[in-house]
């Protein structure tokens, strides 16, 4: 018997990032055909598939596709092939919905775009063992921004976004660090900035991925950032600006010997920001 025609109305539907939708028009192990809609400003994360070869055909709007190291524009009425094991990312940088037909052979398992290709474990303390600080690379920035944009993070920090972080990486006065585990998964990040004041550096940002919090990663991140600061010649003072209602962060900083003080005239703080200062003579409590 011939199958019934299938459409958005009758196909199984899934969503990701709360805004993007896929209708699974053909859902067989050897072949998947999805119709997908990505609203303006949305994107997939860079990811690869071990076995699946895919073809993305743009029905309307325009896709920005990052394939390996190459970025290209794929307008409506054109398509692009993505071979297995090639990293790819799709973005809708236009003003209208990006609608695509996505053919995958074999079918891609799971959500169309996994939030993290390698999810973090939740074992208490387990993530701390073997994790270390390394300089951030451009390829880490998507995860950094995901962490930053998560609920319960954004409210505590100032500027951000992919472009802002990319500019920080290029800025010789700034140091961008990530804390990674043994699999090189980004668990947390921190930013330090030079100051015009002799012997002083500013800790601009300390953020742990929400699913990794409460396991000692914040403590490990801060300890290693302070070691980096100390390794700089003549640095004696590290200061930071923390929201007065950010009790979690304030108690972490206090336990390392940061003290809340009247801000010096050169320190620029957020509206509800408190000035906290650490001196090389202080030690972790
Ligand atoms: C602040 C932050 C970095 C702490 O990271 P974390 O991995 O949860 O912290 P840890 O598990 O290492 O805990 C370290 C200390 O933080 C404090 N802390 C952590 N969670 C806390 C909570 N829910 N309430 C109060 N204090 C808390 C405690 O002093 C704790 O030490 P303890 O476990 O010995 O009591 C993390 O919560 C975060 O990323 N928050 C959002 C971004 C942010 O606010 N950054 C700071 C901007 S200035």
Distance between the termini: 74 Å
CATH topology of the largest domain: Aminopeptidase
Helix coverage percent:
10-25%
Assembly state (oligomeric) = single chain
- Kindly name the structural category: alpha+beta
Task: Just name the CATH architecture of the largest domain.
Answer: 3-Layer(aba) Sandwich
Strand proportion, as a percent range, falls in 35-45%
Q: What is the total tally of β strands?
A: 16
**Order of neighbouring strands in the sheet with most strands:** 10-11-12-13-14-16-15
CATH class placement of the largest domain: Alpha Beta
Q: Unreliable segments (pLDDT under 50, ≥5 consecutive)?
A: 114-119
Largest sheet: 7 strands, mixed
SSE series: EEEEEEEEEEHHEEEHEHEE
Q: Please count the helical segments.
A: 4
Rg for CA atoms: 23 Å
- The number of domains is 2
Bound ligands, named by name, code or SMILES: coenzyme A
GO molecular function, one term: acyltransferase activity, transferring groups other than amino-acyl groups
Protein name: Acetyltransferase (GNAT) family protein
Pfam families: Acetyltransf_1, Cupin_2
Domain N-acetyltransferase: 131-281
């Amino acid at each position: 018997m011939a199958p019934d025609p299938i459409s958005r109305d009758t196909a199984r539907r899934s969503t990701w990032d709360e805004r993007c939708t896929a209708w699974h028009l053909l859902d067989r192990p050897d072949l998947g055909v999805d119709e997908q809609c990505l609203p303006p400003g949305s994107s997939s994360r860079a990811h690869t598939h071990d076995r699946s070869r895919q073809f993305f055909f743009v029905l309307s709007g325009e896709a920005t596709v990052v394939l390996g190291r190459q970025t290209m524009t794929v307008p409506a009425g054109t398509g692009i092939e993505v071979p297995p094991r090639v990293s790819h990312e799709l973005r809708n940088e236009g003003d209208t919905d990006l609608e695509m037909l996505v053919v995958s052979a074999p079918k891609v398992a799971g959500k169309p775009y996994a939030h993290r290709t390698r999810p973090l474990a939740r074992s208490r303390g387990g993530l701390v063992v073997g994790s270390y600080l390394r300089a951030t690379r451009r390829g880490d920035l998507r995860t950094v921004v995901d962490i930053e944009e998560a609920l319960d993070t954004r409210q505590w920090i100032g500027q951000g976004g992919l472009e802002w972080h990319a500019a920080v990486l290029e800025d010789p006065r700034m140091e961008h660090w990530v804390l990674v585990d043994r699999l090189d998964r980004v668990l947390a990040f921190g930013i330090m900035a030079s100051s015009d004041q002799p012997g002083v550096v500013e800790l601009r940002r300390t953020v742990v991925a929400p699913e990794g919090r409460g396991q000692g990663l914040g403590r490990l991140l801060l300890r290693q950032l302070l070691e980096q600061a100390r390794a700089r010649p003549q640095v004696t003072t590290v200061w930071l600006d923390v929201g007065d209602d950010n009790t979690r962060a304030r108690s972490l900083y206090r336990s390392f010997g940061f003290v809340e003080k009247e801000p010096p005239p050169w320190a620029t703080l957020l509206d509800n920001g408190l000035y906290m200062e650490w001196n090389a003579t202080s030690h972790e409590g």
